[in-house]
Amino acid sequence: MNLPAERTSTARPPTHPTHPTRPTRAAWGTLVAMTAGLAMIMLDQTVVTVALPTMAHDLPLSASGQQWTVNAYVLAMAATVALGGRIGTKFGPVTTFRAGVCVFFLASALCGLAPAGSLGQDWLVLARVLQGCGAALMMPVSASIVMGAFPAESRGRAMGAYVGISQLFLALGPVLGGVLTEWVTWRAVFWINVPVGIAAVWLVHRAGPADPKRPELSVSPTQSLLLVAGIGTTVYALQQSSAWGWGSARTLTVLGAGLALTGAFAATQLRSADPLVKLGLLRHRGFNGTVIVLMATQFSMLGIVLFSSLYAQNMLGYAPVRAGCAALSFILPLMAGAQVAGRWYDRSGPRPPLLTGLAVAAVGTVLWAVTLTRIDYLANVPGMALVGLGVGLVFSPVNADALGRVPAADRPQASGIVQTVRQLGGTLGVAVIGAVVLAREHPVPGPERLRSAAEAMAGGFYVAAAVLALGLTAGWFLLAHGTPEPQD
Fold first, then answer.
1. What is the value of pTM for the model shown?
2. Exposed / middle / buried, residue 11 (Cβ in 10 Å: 0-12, 13-18, 19+)
Protein backbone atom coordinates (compact mmCIF):
# COMPACT_ATOMS: atom_id res chain seq x y z
CA MET A 1 0.00 0.00 0.00
CA ASN A 2 1.42 3.34 -0.99
CA LEU A 3 1.77 5.95 1.69
CA PRO A 4 0.16 9.35 1.16
CA ALA A 5 2.28 12.24 -0.01
CA GLU A 6 3.03 14.90 2.56
CA ARG A 7 2.14 18.52 2.30
CA THR A 8 5.17 20.68 1.82
CA SER A 9 3.69 24.13 1.30
CA THR A 10 4.32 26.57 4.13
CA ALA A 11 2.34 29.45 2.65
CA ARG A 12 -0.66 28.95 4.91
CA PRO A 13 -2.11 26.16 7.01
CA PRO A 14 -4.81 24.05 5.40
CA THR A 15 -8.34 25.27 5.91
CA HIS A 16 -11.31 23.19 6.89
CA PRO A 17 -14.78 23.33 5.37
CA THR A 18 -17.00 26.24 6.34
CA HIS A 19 -19.36 23.83 8.08
CA PRO A 20 -17.14 21.15 9.63
CA THR A 21 -18.64 17.88 10.69
CA ARG A 22 -19.43 17.89 14.39
CA PRO A 23 -18.40 14.95 16.57
CA THR A 24 -21.35 12.74 17.44
CA ARG A 25 -22.44 11.70 20.92
CA ALA A 26 -21.14 8.22 20.10
CA ALA A 27 -17.73 9.74 19.31
CA TRP A 28 -17.57 11.35 22.75
CA GLY A 29 -18.66 8.09 24.37
CA THR A 30 -15.88 6.32 22.49
CA LEU A 31 -13.37 8.91 23.70
CA VAL A 32 -14.44 8.39 27.33
CA ALA A 33 -14.06 4.61 26.98
CA MET A 34 -10.63 4.83 25.36
CA THR A 35 -9.46 7.39 27.91
CA ALA A 36 -10.59 5.10 30.75
CA GLY A 37 -8.57 2.25 29.25
CA LEU A 38 -5.46 4.40 28.79
CA ALA A 39 -5.86 5.88 32.27
CA MET A 40 -5.68 2.36 33.77
CA ILE A 41 -2.50 1.67 31.79
CA MET A 42 -0.83 4.90 32.89
CA LEU A 43 -2.01 4.62 36.48
CA ASP A 44 -0.48 1.19 36.92
CA GLN A 45 2.95 2.50 35.91
CA THR A 46 3.14 4.69 39.04
CA VAL A 47 0.40 3.71 41.51
CA VAL A 48 2.28 0.61 42.71
CA THR A 49 5.46 2.42 43.78
CA VAL A 50 3.96 3.95 46.93
CA ALA A 51 2.35 0.64 47.97
CA LEU A 52 5.55 -1.40 47.61
CA PRO A 53 6.82 -1.11 51.22
CA THR A 54 3.48 -2.38 52.61
CA MET A 55 3.28 -5.12 49.97
CA ALA A 56 6.84 -6.16 50.78
CA HIS A 57 5.89 -6.59 54.44
CA ASP A 58 2.59 -8.42 53.88
CA LEU A 59 3.50 -10.95 51.17
CA PRO A 60 6.56 -10.66 51.75
CA LEU A 61 8.64 -9.40 48.79
CA SER A 62 12.41 -9.51 48.48
CA ALA A 63 14.32 -6.46 47.18
CA SER A 64 14.43 -8.10 43.77
CA GLY A 65 10.73 -8.93 44.00
CA GLN A 66 9.89 -5.29 44.68
CA GLN A 67 11.87 -4.22 41.62
CA TRP A 68 10.18 -6.79 39.41
CA THR A 69 6.72 -5.87 40.65
CA VAL A 70 7.31 -2.56 38.83
CA ASN A 71 9.52 -3.73 35.96
CA ALA A 72 7.56 -6.84 34.90
CA TYR A 73 4.59 -4.70 33.86
CA VAL A 74 6.64 -2.28 31.73
CA LEU A 75 8.77 -5.06 30.25
CA ALA A 76 5.76 -7.14 29.15
CA MET A 77 4.02 -4.12 27.67
CA ALA A 78 7.09 -2.92 25.76
CA ALA A 79 7.77 -6.40 24.35
CA THR A 80 4.23 -7.06 23.11
CA VAL A 81 2.69 -3.67 22.22
CA ALA A 82 3.72 -3.79 18.54
CA LEU A 83 2.26 -7.30 18.31
CA GLY A 84 -0.92 -5.88 19.83
CA GLY A 85 -1.11 -3.44 16.94
CA ARG A 86 -0.96 -6.29 14.43
CA ILE A 87 -3.63 -8.24 16.29
CA GLY A 88 -5.79 -5.12 16.25
CA THR A 89 -5.43 -4.82 12.49
CA LYS A 90 -6.37 -8.49 11.93
CA PHE A 91 -9.24 -8.93 14.38
CA GLY A 92 -10.47 -5.34 14.58
CA PRO A 93 -9.40 -2.55 16.98
CA VAL A 94 -12.60 -2.60 19.06
CA THR A 95 -12.56 -6.38 19.48
CA THR A 96 -8.90 -6.23 20.47
CA PHE A 97 -9.53 -3.38 22.91
CA ARG A 98 -12.30 -5.34 24.62
CA ALA A 99 -10.05 -8.40 24.91
CA GLY A 100 -7.22 -6.26 26.32
CA VAL A 101 -9.47 -4.63 28.92
CA CYS A 102 -10.74 -8.03 30.08
CA VAL A 103 -7.21 -9.44 30.35
CA PHE A 104 -6.09 -6.30 32.18
CA PHE A 105 -8.79 -6.17 34.83
CA LEU A 106 -8.68 -9.94 35.43
CA ALA A 107 -4.89 -9.70 35.87
CA SER A 108 -5.46 -6.75 38.24
CA ALA A 109 -7.83 -8.87 40.32
CA LEU A 110 -5.19 -11.62 40.46
CA CYS A 111 -2.61 -9.06 41.65
CA GLY A 112 -4.94 -8.06 44.48
CA LEU A 113 -5.48 -11.72 45.40
CA ALA A 114 -1.77 -12.53 45.71
CA PRO A 115 -1.40 -14.91 48.67
CA ALA A 116 0.95 -14.32 51.57
CA GLY A 117 3.87 -16.68 51.92
CA SER A 118 6.38 -18.18 49.51
CA LEU A 119 3.94 -18.20 46.57
CA GLY A 120 3.00 -14.54 46.85
CA GLN A 121 5.99 -12.98 45.11
CA ASP A 122 5.93 -15.21 42.01
CA TRP A 123 2.14 -14.91 41.80
CA LEU A 124 2.33 -11.11 41.85
CA VAL A 125 5.11 -10.81 39.28
CA LEU A 126 3.36 -13.20 36.85
CA ALA A 127 0.08 -11.31 37.27
CA ARG A 128 1.92 -8.07 36.50
CA VAL A 129 3.27 -9.66 33.30
CA LEU A 130 -0.32 -10.54 32.36
CA GLN A 131 -1.35 -6.96 33.09
CA GLY A 132 1.35 -5.72 30.72
CA CYS A 133 0.08 -8.04 27.96
CA GLY A 134 -3.46 -6.74 28.44
CA ALA A 135 -2.18 -3.16 28.24
CA ALA A 136 -0.33 -4.05 25.03
CA LEU A 137 -3.63 -5.09 23.44
CA MET A 138 -5.39 -1.90 24.54
CA MET A 139 -2.79 0.79 23.96
CA PRO A 140 -2.07 0.61 20.21
CA VAL A 141 -5.72 0.29 19.17
CA SER A 142 -7.27 2.85 21.53
CA ALA A 143 -5.66 5.83 19.78
CA SER A 144 -6.70 4.54 16.35
CA ILE A 145 -10.28 4.05 17.60
CA VAL A 146 -10.38 7.68 18.79
CA MET A 147 -8.99 8.86 15.44
CA GLY A 148 -11.62 6.86 13.55
CA ALA A 149 -14.51 8.12 15.71
CA PHE A 150 -13.85 11.84 15.17
CA PRO A 151 -13.92 13.90 11.97
CA ALA A 152 -10.50 15.06 10.73
CA GLU A 153 -10.95 18.69 11.85
CA SER A 154 -11.65 17.62 15.49
CA ARG A 155 -8.97 14.98 15.97
CA GLY A 156 -6.39 17.26 17.54
CA ARG A 157 -8.87 18.36 20.21
CA ALA A 158 -9.96 14.77 20.84
CA MET A 159 -6.37 13.54 21.15
CA GLY A 160 -5.62 16.43 23.48
CA ALA A 161 -8.29 15.18 25.88
CA TYR A 162 -7.21 11.55 25.38
CA VAL A 163 -3.56 12.30 26.21
CA GLY A 164 -4.11 15.00 28.84
CA ILE A 165 -6.45 12.96 31.05
CA SER A 166 -4.27 9.85 30.80
CA GLN A 167 -1.19 11.84 31.81
CA LEU A 168 -3.12 13.18 34.79
CA PHE A 169 -3.60 9.61 36.00
CA LEU A 170 0.11 8.90 35.41
CA ALA A 171 1.00 11.73 37.78
CA LEU A 172 -1.78 11.05 40.28
CA GLY A 173 -0.70 7.42 40.63
CA PRO A 174 1.48 8.05 43.71
CA VAL A 175 -1.30 10.10 45.38
CA LEU A 176 -3.96 7.46 44.76
CA GLY A 177 -1.57 4.68 45.74
CA GLY A 178 -0.78 6.41 49.00
CA VAL A 179 -4.44 7.04 49.85
CA LEU A 180 -5.58 3.49 49.07
CA THR A 181 -2.64 1.87 50.84
CA GLU A 182 -2.93 4.01 53.96
CA TRP A 183 -6.72 4.18 54.29
CA VAL A 184 -7.96 0.96 52.63
CA THR A 185 -5.45 -1.76 51.65
CA TRP A 186 -2.63 -2.09 49.16
CA ARG A 187 -4.76 -4.67 47.32
CA ALA A 188 -7.22 -1.90 46.39
CA VAL A 189 -4.43 -0.40 44.24
CA PHE A 190 -5.12 -3.27 41.82
CA TRP A 191 -8.82 -3.91 42.46
CA ILE A 192 -9.73 -0.36 41.41
CA ASN A 193 -9.06 -1.43 37.81
CA VAL A 194 -11.93 -3.95 37.85
CA PRO A 195 -14.88 -1.49 37.93
CA VAL A 196 -13.06 0.91 35.59
CA GLY A 197 -12.46 -1.91 33.11
CA ILE A 198 -16.08 -3.07 33.23
CA ALA A 199 -17.24 0.52 32.68
CA ALA A 200 -14.90 0.89 29.67
CA VAL A 201 -16.29 -2.28 28.04
CA TRP A 202 -19.85 -1.10 28.62
CA LEU A 203 -19.12 2.36 27.16
CA VAL A 204 -17.59 0.81 24.04
CA HIS A 205 -20.66 -1.37 23.63
CA ARG A 206 -22.96 1.68 23.94
CA ALA A 207 -20.92 3.86 21.57
CA GLY A 208 -20.51 1.16 18.91
CA PRO A 209 -17.40 2.53 17.11
CA ALA A 210 -16.32 1.06 13.77
CA ASP A 211 -14.37 -2.20 14.05
CA PRO A 212 -12.73 -2.83 10.65
CA LYS A 213 -11.09 -6.25 10.37
CA ARG A 214 -8.55 -7.73 7.98
CA PRO A 215 -8.88 -11.48 8.56
CA GLU A 216 -6.63 -12.28 5.61
CA LEU A 217 -3.60 -11.05 7.57
CA SER A 218 -1.44 -13.65 9.28
CA VAL A 219 0.34 -13.50 12.65
CA SER A 220 3.55 -15.48 12.20
CA PRO A 221 4.64 -17.34 15.37
CA THR A 222 8.32 -17.08 14.35
CA GLN A 223 8.14 -13.35 13.73
CA SER A 224 6.13 -12.86 16.93
CA LEU A 225 8.75 -14.76 18.96
CA LEU A 226 11.59 -12.73 17.44
CA LEU A 227 9.75 -9.47 18.17
CA VAL A 228 8.93 -10.30 21.79
CA ALA A 229 12.38 -11.78 22.48
CA GLY A 230 14.23 -8.89 20.83
CA ILE A 231 12.34 -6.02 22.43
CA GLY A 232 11.96 -7.86 25.74
CA THR A 233 15.67 -8.66 26.04
CA THR A 234 16.68 -5.12 25.06
CA VAL A 235 14.33 -3.53 27.60
CA TYR A 236 15.46 -6.02 30.26
CA ALA A 237 19.10 -5.03 29.72
CA LEU A 238 18.23 -1.32 29.94
CA GLN A 239 16.22 -1.86 33.13
CA GLN A 240 19.01 -3.84 34.79
CA SER A 241 21.87 -1.60 33.65
CA SER A 242 21.76 0.52 36.81
CA ALA A 243 22.19 -2.60 38.97
CA TRP A 244 24.68 -4.40 36.73
CA GLY A 245 26.64 -1.33 35.59
CA TRP A 246 26.53 0.15 32.10
CA GLY A 247 29.95 -1.15 31.14
CA SER A 248 29.65 -4.58 32.75
CA ALA A 249 30.00 -7.72 30.63
CA ARG A 250 26.55 -8.84 31.73
CA THR A 251 24.83 -5.65 30.56
CA LEU A 252 26.70 -5.57 27.26
CA THR A 253 26.03 -9.26 26.57
CA VAL A 254 22.29 -9.10 27.27
CA LEU A 255 21.93 -5.78 25.45
CA GLY A 256 23.88 -7.13 22.47
CA ALA A 257 21.66 -10.22 22.36
CA GLY A 258 18.53 -8.07 22.48
CA LEU A 259 19.73 -5.79 19.70
CA ALA A 260 20.76 -8.78 17.58
CA LEU A 261 17.33 -10.39 17.97
CA THR A 262 15.63 -7.08 17.20
CA GLY A 263 17.83 -6.67 14.12
CA ALA A 264 16.96 -10.19 12.97
CA PHE A 265 13.29 -9.37 13.40
CA ALA A 266 13.67 -6.15 11.39
CA ALA A 267 15.40 -8.10 8.60
CA THR A 268 12.53 -10.57 8.39
CA GLN A 269 10.02 -7.71 8.22
CA LEU A 270 11.80 -5.97 5.37
CA ARG A 271 11.88 -9.22 3.35
CA SER A 272 8.36 -10.38 4.17
CA ALA A 273 5.45 -9.78 1.81
CA ASP A 274 3.14 -9.79 4.85
CA PRO A 275 5.20 -8.30 7.71
CA LEU A 276 4.10 -8.47 11.32
CA VAL A 277 5.15 -4.81 11.77
CA LYS A 278 5.15 -2.53 8.74
CA LEU A 279 8.59 -0.97 9.15
CA GLY A 280 7.97 0.71 5.82
CA LEU A 281 5.91 3.25 7.77
CA LEU A 282 9.23 4.59 9.09
CA ARG A 283 10.16 5.62 5.55
CA HIS A 284 7.44 8.25 5.72
CA ARG A 285 9.26 11.44 6.68
CA GLY A 286 6.44 13.04 8.64
CA PHE A 287 5.67 9.86 10.58
CA ASN A 288 9.38 9.38 11.32
CA GLY A 289 9.69 12.94 12.60
CA THR A 290 6.85 12.57 15.09
CA VAL A 291 8.25 9.23 16.32
CA ILE A 292 11.67 10.78 17.00
CA VAL A 293 10.10 13.73 18.82
CA LEU A 294 8.03 11.33 20.95
CA MET A 295 11.07 9.24 21.87
CA ALA A 296 13.06 12.33 22.95
CA THR A 297 10.13 13.64 25.01
CA GLN A 298 9.39 10.32 26.69
CA PHE A 299 13.10 9.77 27.42
CA SER A 300 13.24 13.04 29.32
CA MET A 301 9.79 13.05 30.94
CA LEU A 302 9.82 9.61 32.56
CA GLY A 303 13.24 10.14 34.12
CA ILE A 304 12.26 13.59 35.37
CA VAL A 305 8.98 12.34 36.88
CA LEU A 306 10.73 9.47 38.67
CA PHE A 307 13.51 11.59 40.18
CA SER A 308 11.22 14.50 41.06
CA SER A 309 9.15 12.04 43.14
CA LEU A 310 12.34 10.84 44.88
CA TYR A 311 13.38 14.47 45.41
CA ALA A 312 10.08 15.33 47.09
CA GLN A 313 10.20 12.36 49.46
CA ASN A 314 13.92 11.94 50.15
CA MET A 315 15.10 15.57 50.11
CA LEU A 316 12.05 17.65 50.96
CA GLY A 317 10.83 15.01 53.43
CA TYR A 318 7.29 14.85 52.04
CA ALA A 319 4.99 11.94 52.83
CA PRO A 320 3.75 9.98 49.79
CA VAL A 321 0.39 11.76 49.53
CA ARG A 322 1.97 15.20 49.84
CA ALA A 323 4.67 14.26 47.33
CA GLY A 324 1.98 13.26 44.87
CA CYS A 325 0.17 16.55 45.40
CA ALA A 326 3.43 18.42 44.80
CA ALA A 327 3.49 16.92 41.29
CA LEU A 328 0.39 18.98 40.41
CA SER A 329 2.71 21.90 39.60
CA PHE A 330 3.87 19.75 36.71
CA ILE A 331 0.70 17.92 35.73
CA LEU A 332 -1.82 20.80 35.68
CA PRO A 333 0.22 22.77 33.11
CA LEU A 334 0.63 19.50 31.17
CA MET A 335 -3.14 19.09 30.96
CA ALA A 336 -3.59 22.71 29.92
CA GLY A 337 -0.86 22.36 27.30
CA ALA A 338 -2.46 19.21 25.88
CA GLN A 339 -5.77 21.03 25.37
CA VAL A 340 -4.14 24.08 23.78
CA ALA A 341 -1.98 21.89 21.55
CA GLY A 342 -4.92 19.87 20.27
CA ARG A 343 -6.67 22.96 18.92
CA TRP A 344 -3.37 24.46 17.72
CA TYR A 345 -2.63 21.29 15.77
CA ASP A 346 -6.09 21.33 14.16
CA ARG A 347 -5.38 24.87 12.89
CA SER A 348 -1.67 24.76 12.02
CA GLY A 349 -0.35 21.21 11.79
CA PRO A 350 2.38 19.64 13.95
CA ARG A 351 5.33 22.00 13.66
CA PRO A 352 4.18 25.03 15.74
CA PRO A 353 2.97 23.12 18.85
CA LEU A 354 5.68 20.43 18.76
CA LEU A 355 8.65 22.74 18.24
CA THR A 356 7.33 25.23 20.78
CA GLY A 357 6.67 22.46 23.29
CA LEU A 358 10.15 20.97 22.94
CA ALA A 359 11.76 24.40 23.38
CA VAL A 360 9.65 25.27 26.44
CA ALA A 361 10.29 21.85 28.02
CA ALA A 362 14.06 22.11 27.45
CA VAL A 363 14.23 25.59 29.02
CA GLY A 364 12.03 24.47 31.90
CA THR A 365 14.20 21.41 32.56
CA VAL A 366 17.32 23.58 32.80
CA LEU A 367 15.54 26.02 35.15
CA TRP A 368 14.28 23.11 37.28
CA ALA A 369 17.80 21.63 37.45
CA VAL A 370 19.28 24.97 38.58
CA THR A 371 16.79 25.25 41.46
CA LEU A 372 17.12 21.66 42.72
CA THR A 373 20.09 22.51 44.93
CA ARG A 374 18.05 25.08 46.86
CA ILE A 375 16.07 22.20 48.47
CA ASP A 376 12.94 24.35 48.26
CA TYR A 377 9.72 23.22 46.59
CA LEU A 378 8.52 26.72 45.69
CA ALA A 379 11.82 27.44 43.93
CA ASN A 380 11.19 24.38 41.74
CA VAL A 381 7.66 25.36 40.71
CA PRO A 382 8.50 27.65 37.73
CA GLY A 383 10.67 24.96 36.13
CA MET A 384 8.08 22.26 36.87
CA ALA A 385 5.32 24.33 35.27
CA LEU A 386 7.35 25.05 32.13
CA VAL A 387 8.26 21.38 31.70
CA GLY A 388 4.64 20.33 32.17
CA LEU A 389 3.39 22.93 29.68
CA GLY A 390 6.02 21.95 27.11
CA VAL A 391 5.36 18.22 27.41
CA GLY A 392 1.61 18.86 27.13
CA LEU A 393 2.17 20.78 23.89
CA VAL A 394 4.02 17.76 22.48
CA PHE A 395 2.02 14.69 23.46
CA SER A 396 -1.39 15.14 21.83
CA PRO A 397 -0.11 16.46 18.44
CA VAL A 398 2.45 13.62 18.28
CA ASN A 399 -0.25 10.97 18.51
CA ALA A 400 -2.70 12.73 16.21
CA ASP A 401 -0.08 13.52 13.56
CA ALA A 402 1.60 10.10 13.53
CA LEU A 403 -1.69 8.27 13.04
CA GLY A 404 -3.11 10.87 10.69
CA ARG A 405 -0.26 10.39 8.20
CA VAL A 406 -0.95 6.72 7.51
CA PRO A 407 -3.98 5.04 5.90
CA ALA A 408 -6.78 4.21 8.34
CA ALA A 409 -6.19 0.46 7.94
CA ASP A 410 -2.58 0.88 9.12
CA ARG A 411 -3.35 2.94 12.24
CA PRO A 412 -3.25 0.04 14.73
CA GLN A 413 0.17 -0.92 13.29
CA ALA A 414 1.37 2.67 13.36
CA SER A 415 0.12 3.05 16.93
CA GLY A 416 1.98 -0.15 17.87
CA ILE A 417 5.22 1.36 16.55
CA VAL A 418 4.52 4.64 18.34
CA GLN A 419 3.83 2.92 21.66
CA THR A 420 6.89 0.67 21.35
CA VAL A 421 9.01 3.77 20.83
CA ARG A 422 7.29 5.40 23.80
CA GLN A 423 8.16 2.48 26.11
CA LEU A 424 11.73 2.19 24.80
CA GLY A 425 12.27 5.93 25.15
CA GLY A 426 11.00 5.97 28.72
CA THR A 427 13.00 2.90 29.75
CA LEU A 428 16.17 4.27 28.17
CA GLY A 429 15.60 7.64 29.84
CA VAL A 430 15.23 6.15 33.32
CA ALA A 431 18.35 4.00 32.76
CA VAL A 432 20.57 6.76 31.37
CA ILE A 433 19.42 9.55 33.69
CA GLY A 434 19.66 7.14 36.63
CA ALA A 435 23.20 6.14 35.64
CA VAL A 436 24.23 9.82 35.44
CA VAL A 437 22.76 10.55 38.87
CA LEU A 438 24.45 7.52 40.45
CA ALA A 439 27.80 8.37 38.84
CA ARG A 440 27.68 11.93 40.24
CA GLU A 441 26.64 10.94 43.75
CA HIS A 442 29.34 11.14 46.40
CA PRO A 443 28.82 10.44 50.11
CA VAL A 444 29.12 13.74 51.92
CA PRO A 445 28.61 13.95 55.70
CA GLY A 446 26.61 16.58 57.51
CA PRO A 447 24.41 19.33 56.13
CA GLU A 448 25.97 19.19 52.66
CA ARG A 449 24.57 15.72 52.02
CA LEU A 450 21.27 16.92 50.59
CA ARG A 451 22.94 19.53 48.39
CA SER A 452 25.35 16.94 47.02
CA ALA A 453 22.48 14.58 46.19
CA ALA A 454 20.57 17.42 44.53
CA GLU A 455 23.61 18.32 42.42
CA ALA A 456 23.81 14.72 41.25
CA MET A 457 20.13 14.79 40.32
CA ALA A 458 20.59 18.09 38.51
CA GLY A 459 23.17 16.39 36.30
CA GLY A 460 20.50 13.92 35.19
CA PHE A 461 18.10 16.78 34.46
CA TYR A 462 20.72 18.46 32.25
CA VAL A 463 20.96 15.23 30.23
CA ALA A 464 17.17 15.30 29.84
CA ALA A 465 17.34 18.91 28.62
CA ALA A 466 20.04 17.98 26.09
CA VAL A 467 17.89 15.15 24.69
CA LEU A 468 14.94 17.52 24.36
CA ALA A 469 17.21 19.91 22.44
CA LEU A 470 18.24 17.06 20.13
CA GLY A 471 14.56 16.23 19.59
CA LEU A 472 13.92 19.89 18.75
CA THR A 473 16.73 19.84 16.17
CA ALA A 474 15.48 16.62 14.58
CA GLY A 475 11.91 17.90 14.57
CA TRP A 476 12.94 21.11 12.80
CA PHE A 477 14.21 19.09 9.84
CA LEU A 478 11.77 16.16 9.82
CA LEU A 479 8.35 17.38 10.91
CA ALA A 480 5.84 17.89 8.12
CA HIS A 481 4.16 21.18 7.28
CA GLY A 482 0.39 21.34 7.61
CA THR A 483 -2.09 18.80 8.90
CA PRO A 484 -2.24 15.47 7.06
CA GLU A 485 -4.88 14.76 4.46
CA PRO A 486 -7.71 12.62 5.87
CA GLN A 487 -6.94 8.94 5.26
CA ASP A 488 -10.34 7.40 6.04
1. 0.78
2. exposed
